[in-house]
Amino acid sequence: MSDKFSLLSTAAFLAVAIGSPALAQEAAPAAAPAGQDAQSVDDQTADEIVVTGLRGSLSNAANLKRSSNQIQDSIVAEDIGKLPDTNIAELLQRIPGVQIARNTRGEGNGYVVHGLKQVMTTVNGRQLFTVTNRTATLLDFSADILSGLDVYKTATADQIEGGLGGLINVHMARPFDFDGFHIAATGAAAYSDFQNKISPRLSGVVSDRFETGAGEIGVLIGGQFERVYSGGYQVSTNAYTNTTSLYDRDGDGTFNVTPADSGDTVQIPSQVRPRYETGNRVRSTIYGAVQWAPSSDLTIHADVTQSHSGGHSFTQQLSVQTDGATRGTPSSFVYKDAPNGNVPDSYTLTNAVVRSVTGASDNPYDTLSVGVGFDWHSGPFKLSGEAAYIDSSGPFYSRSIAIQTRAPTATIDLSGRTPTVAVSGVDLTAASSYTGSVTYSDLGQQSIGREPSFRLDGTYELNGPITSLQVGMRYARHRAINDVYSIGPTVTLTQPIGSVTQLTPNDLFTNQDVPINQWLAIQSRYIMNQDQTRALAGVSAVDQPYPLTNHYDYLENVWAVYGQANFAFNLGLPIDGNLGLRYVSTKNHQSVYDATLRPVSGEASYNNWLPSVNIRAKFTDNLFLRLAYSKAITRPDFGNLSPALVLNQLQLTGSGGNPDLQPTKANQYDASLEYYFGKSNYIAGSLFQKDVTGFVQKFSVNETINGQVYSISRPRNTGSGTIKGFEVTYQQFFDFLPSFLSGLGFQGNYTYVDSALPVVGQSITVPADLLSKYSYNLTAIYEKGPISLHASYNWRSKSVQTNFADNFSRTLWNAPQQSLDFSLTYNLNKHVSLKFDATNLTSAYQYQYYGTPDIPTVANQLDRAYQLGVHVNF
């Protein structure tokens, strides 16, 4: 207890005395939260300066942070369609304590808060999920129709449970957020540097309010459409394995003997593969909301959102078999120095197998969200409720065709951050070279997620130290269904190789020394269309049947009730906050099939008491100390509970679920010191610690399947571990500077997070997945007259991608990553503005390695993108 008490009671004294304590405000569509103090937006004086633009949005975000009854950070749009990034995941990297991950094409597609990826995501307080994941994949949601978002880093009893890292609430506007008629629209053209293509991006919102004989009615209609082109260039390996059959490393005259001679152990990958990857993603949303106020004390709302995300990717990969039964004959080994002396710097193979693999995938899915609710108040009583339904479903398909040849000589180089391979004696651009077998791979997945829910919340306001009491309940019934098939036969093409192939681009990593830049590959038209792929491979045109052993049907019923007391009193200095308790009862039922195709079902239930307390002490009107404690749980992702095993037969990898996963629990301790000054300025520092039990991490082990060794990744519960750290944030506009320099501003944050989680059956600890120990974000801002610009640089240190259970030295690490983005807005008048955005200006690389940088596995160059658009509002 002493360490925890020390954490909560320790905070550095921060004081900066620049500017006035007054706050500034813009009439933004995002509503301020309950529990605002005397400095809140509702209490500002009429003669206060009103700021707009980027500065106005930052001022509103600072005010939301200041007035919140818990530790939070926010992003507020200047107007609908004017958030600074194109998808929500990329928005989040601007917030301290939040780190994002990017896919191989450079798009932000994952995030962790305070070191944990288990984050509850809501839209206007309503839970959001994606098919079989509890956390929404925010890559698939455009930022164009949002009015802002909040990241809550401490819990309150009235919020939905399930987030260990925190809760992200996304704001979608409602008609009563505006004073009257409002229209906002954005049109832009985006350019992908790698694909050399231009794509459209359109969004718009129309809202109005009407006085009728039945009360005031507001109607809002919005929509968004965009096509996103992206690309990535990559050289990679698969997992390294130990072998004693390659080379007489110890010089005793023998190797490849039984029993194995450990002195001949060599650690190498089984493949080295340069690859081009391009993506084409369509995102569209239709959103409608109605509010009706039949009287001054009752408001009824209804809204519906229909969104579609259609992701398509196309890859061209050259795979050289560097280990295994078909690798060829090895020779000419050159070894690294310690500590990884059994990993060669380079070696040569004769008669090596070379495969040109062309693949594509489609991941279209649709999400429907419907909600109907009310807000009623009478004197000290407030009552609100909402019934909601979410349906998210869609298939995932991928297919590939591999044509094969042999190279008289292949030289593998593992000496740098980019693994490379060079071949000689064969023309990789000639159809006549590919005379070997052809491998076809086909994977299909169908997933459905559905959840009806209902909540009811009541508040009774009091006079005295207890300012209000809150009680409420929530019920949710979630069903997740998943089916998977996967095949990989050897086939004979129905057409000659020369008539169905084309040359790849020839600019792979042109700024690095990569020996192979171009080869022959199956034409894209035969791969992008699944029917044509199957016809070329000579297989059935219909989808394969889904094996029952890969089926699961999961049903979860959750009841939650809570009580919370909000308080405010004076103990020599003003103290306010909340104290609450949430009780959650979870019952689930799972249906699967065993290896003999017999149906197997099981049930489980568990109950959790989740206390929370948030305290704010006001040393002055501008200097606050916040202390918080909460207990949290998160349930396993539905996809992680699936018994299905999906194999990639070309890359010799696979992934599967674990139906025995249990919920993860955490005791959470937070302290934050915040100082506000000037119109938009503040500096804050916070400490946090999470004591985690049953953390779920993915571990990889080698498994032999049908005589072939695969690296299989599965999730497991670990024991107890700790995540702790601190973050510092500073935001200021330099009004005191003369003339045009007074438009300068700065926003920066730094986060340190340390994690130590146990490995099942071993005495070691490992870092949490996707967590960087160090990260920071620096944003330079200028806003004066019609010009508004900002440049943001983000950096994060190395992080674990996947832990390797049987050998921590083979844990897959992401090397440090960086990004530099730029945005410029020019306001033609108060209604029309032009905007230019550039992302990943440095065309940064992603590097991955096993254990240490001496064992490289991935070098991935990310796409650079530009966007030019116009925004109008009335």
CATH level 1 class label: Mainly Beta
Specify Rg, calculated over alpha carbons: 28 Å
Mean pLDDT: 83
Number of strands: 45
Shape: globular
Helix content: under 10%
Oligomer description: single chain
CATH superfamily: TonB-dependent receptor, beta-barrel domain
Q: What is the architecture at the second tier of CATH?
A: Beta Barrel
Number of helices, where a helix is a run of at least 4 consecutive DSSP H or I residues? 6
Strand content: over 45%
Structural class: mainly beta
Count the domains.
1
CATH topology: Maltoporin, Chain A
Distance between the termini: 57 Å
Largest sheet, strands/sense/barrel: 22 strands, antiparallel, barrel
Report the uncertain regions: 1-51
